[in-house]
Amino acid sequence: MNCARSILKGLLTRLESRVEIVVAFVLVFSMVFPVSTVASTSHVPSHFSTQSILIDSSHSAPSRVTPAGSASLSNYSLAVLTNFDGVNAPGSCDVPFDRKSVCNPPDMGLAVGPNQIVEMVNRQVYFFSKNGVLIQNENLSTFWGVFQPWSDPEVLYDVSSQRFYASIINTASFQVYFAVSLSSNATAGWKIYPLPQLIYSGSPPSGGCIVGTSLFPDQPILGINNDKVSLSDNSFCGNILLGAHFWILNKTEVLSGASSLHMASIGPLANTESVHPVQSLSSTNTEYMVSTGAEDLGTSGNIVALYSVTGAPPGQVTYHIANLTLNSFISGPPGALEANTTQTVWCVGTGSTSCNDARVLDAKWYLGKLWYSLNEGCTPPGDSQTRTCVRLTEIDTATPTVIQDFDYDAVGQYYYYPALGIDASGNLAVIYGFSSSSTYPSLAATAQGFNDPVATMRIPKVLVTGLSDSLSGRYGDYFGGATDPIDASMVWIAGEYYGSITGECLPQAQTGPCWSTRIASTRVEDFSITANPTSIALLAGSLGNSTITATRINGFQGTVSLTVSITPSSGLVCSASPSSLTLGSSASGTLSCGQGSAGNYTVTVTGSNGVFSHSTTVSVRVTDFSVTAPPGINCISLRGNCRFSVTVTSVNGFAGTVQLSSSSGSVSPSSITLSAGSSGSATVTFSAGPSSVSVTYTSGTLVHRSTTHVTYPQ
Q1: Is the domain of 245 the same as that of 305?
Q2: Alpha carbons 234 and 43: distance in angstroms, whole number
Q3: How many CB atoms neighbour CB 38 within 10 A?
Q4: For residue 610, what are the contacts with CB-CB under 8 A and spacing of at least 6?
Q5: pLDDT tens for residues 65-88?
Q6: Are residues 359 and 408 in the same domain?
Q7: What pLDDT is attached to residue 73?
Q8: CA–CA separation, 229 vs 270, rounded Å?
């Protein structure tokens, strides 16, 4: 159950009945939705100048296949560059009527601009420099301009428009608020739009909801693309879920600072919950959303619903749903155990009791690929107990097809609340919380490089080790991930953990451990190995070269050792010189191959620094020609001359001219031009007398000889 509903409903019981969504076909909707307008207000903190650049979108991701089961750990890791504490519970709840317990959990949103990091949690927004220095902070009632309780904040930075965007619930007025910064400086002013209150119209049908009732828009999620700003919510009538609902706003109007915005209101859609809009990190006019169900309806089985929204108000807004099959059913996560207590990290119950909330927690889209993350229950390989695991799924939205879908887990560990970011190369960085019966709630990060094998994750790096238990019964509800707009090889991540801070952070204002947040920047450092040319054609016995280049990715530094292997293993000799390359931005060496006999070879050059290992291949084709001459002849002299024929044949695609000569006589013709696979003949004429006749066949550096023995009649 998320923070806003907890504040609103207190001790109201959850729905006892659960509806499982399993749809095995694609639904397509094409219709015009009602368009309305909303007015704005303004909020201006202090001034701060900045600049920005676009994320590079030149990378083309490799093809993928759908793996199954749990991820394997590769031999690689990721670099953690900056790592500092963000907001904590005492720093979040600082207004007179707030007790620290009402700020559980933080519901943290993270956005990274050209010069600032924005962390928005329940009750507070903090502005940091990129080295972790606090610039300023303010209460959300000041930021949003209304003295009200606020919950479920979201914040992101959009590179294409160079603006920050934020959303939140006003839990008193049952309204979603939306804001956009006036520039790329998060402290230089925002335009604020309270969205209209949702009123129950009788659709979808609900026996327990009266027409005209104000609906509660639970857990709004913010998404963005070229032409749209999207906000989704779960619409509740009291404790009754009516379904998912989303707003579509015209991005051009938003950026113009219009005093009112056109918007399309879609839903509530019956039997749907937690439809999560994506943040688009490259250019697209389609806003994608994904849903796997959530706590009230349960999971969607082995189905993920992919929504594609096109058009922008006041024009036609259309959405399509593709129900894609996953390779296994999504299971509700159990409560995660923690050290020195039987209480679980974030839901009431024991470690084996399902929390039943496998909603999508984060979703990003980049160059045709969509990654999303969620919590689920799984049994790690080698374990005998169900744990809370991170589930990661990658979708090719052009097809659409699920191309990766796996759990990230570990024996004896509980992993939860994954958030993700994608860098300009297509590398995936993931932050997650972890704990166990001997570990307090902590934070770690892992990654998958764009050229890493599918269903593998890199060796995790611990960001911060917890020092106390989460005893509030609340956690999350989500972490954050963001690509740096200046250095798009860097992904910023943030999450919740429990350190040494204490205060009135437990229910009924009891003193106990308080949550803290951690912010870090990461980079999936790597290098690539390339060959130019990638194919070599050699004459047998001659030499051929290819330039081998090692290029750093995302700031990699170090020495790369080169090794060479050849298939088949005999018939060709190759070596790399030098045998190691020290990288600045790049370094090159030479692959030399020779002493080869006719045939086709695959030469693999592998570069390794002891942690990363990458290879490139060079195809080598060695060509030759063969000669056929009689081993011996009986020369019956005709006018004092003897003759015999020789044949030259192309081997393995040889093409060229072969010169023929003999010291004992003449050869006609004296040259034969061969095309691949062809042959040609010549006549050798000599005067009677020698006991043998040699013929030399030459093409460039390639030389063959034949000897024919001669006998004469007695």
Answers
A1: yes
A2: 28
A3: 18
A4: none
A5: 344 468 888 777 888 999 999 999
A6: yes
A7: 84
A8: 23
Last residue of a domain, one of 623, 657, 685: 623
Across the chain, what does the average pLDDT equal? 87
The pLDDT value given to residue 91 = 84
Rounded Cα–Cα distance for residues 181 and 192 (Å): 9
Query: Band of the pLDDT at 22, cuts 50, 70, 90?
Result: very low
- Contact partners, residue 144, CB within 8 Å, separation at least 6: 43, 150, 168, 170, 177, 179, 192
8 or 175, which is more confident: 175
pLDDT for the residue 549: 96
- pLDDT for the residue 18: 22
Q: Is 272 helix (H, G, I), strand (E, B) or coil?
A: coil
Q: Residue 550's domain spans which residues? A: 526-623
- Note whether 611 and 657 are same-domain residues: no
Degrees to nearest 5, angle at CA 221 with 216 and 226: 135
The residues that bridge with 526 in the sheet, in sequence order, are: 553
DSSP H or E run through 91: helix 89-92
Alpha-carbon gap, residue 565 to 588, rounded angstroms: 18
> Using CA atoms, how far apart are residues 507 and 664, in angstroms rounded to an integer?
109
In whole angstroms, what is the distance from residue 367 CA to residue 488 CA? 14
Which of 177-186, 347-356, 548-557 has maximum average pLDDT? 177-186
- pLDDT of 427 higher than 80: yes
Residue 505 shares a structural domain with residue 605: no
Which amino acid is present at 150? W
Burial label for 546, CB within 10 Å (0-12, 13-18, 19+), is: buried
What's the confidence (pLDDT) of residue 325? 95
**How many structural domains is the chain composed of?**
3
Instruction: Tell me the pTM.
Output: 0.77
Instruction: Find the CATH number of the domain harbouring 679.
Output: 2.60.40.2310
Same domain, 516 and 533: no
| C-alpha to C-alpha distances, 466 to 120, 325, 671, nearest whole angstrom | 22, 37, 83
| 193 and 209 in a common domain | yes
From CA 647, how far away is CA 630, in angstroms rounded? 10
Residues 550 and 635 in one domain: no
Pairing of strands 656-661, 190-194: unpaired
Q: What is the DSSP string of 206-260?
A: -TT--TTPBPEEEEEEEEE-SSEEEEEEEEEETTEEEEEEEEEEEHHHHHHT-SE
Compute, in degrees rounded to 10, the torsion defined by CA atoms 523, 48, 277, 168.
130
5 three-state secondary structure: helix
Check pLDDT > 80 for residue 34.
no
* Cβ atoms of 55 and 485 closer than 8 Å: yes
**What CATH number corresponds to the domain at position 505?**
2.130.10.10
Domain with 615 in it: what CATH number? 2.60.40.10
Domain boundary among 457, 488, 523: 523
Contact 8, 172 (CB under 8 A): no
- 378-401 pLDDT, tens digit per residue, is 999 999 999 999 999 999 999 999
On whether both 165 and 280 belong to a single domain, the answer is yes
698 — phi, psi (to 5°)? -130, 130
Give the mean pLDDT of 607-631. Answer: 92
Residues 217 and 154: beta-carbon distance below 8 Å: no
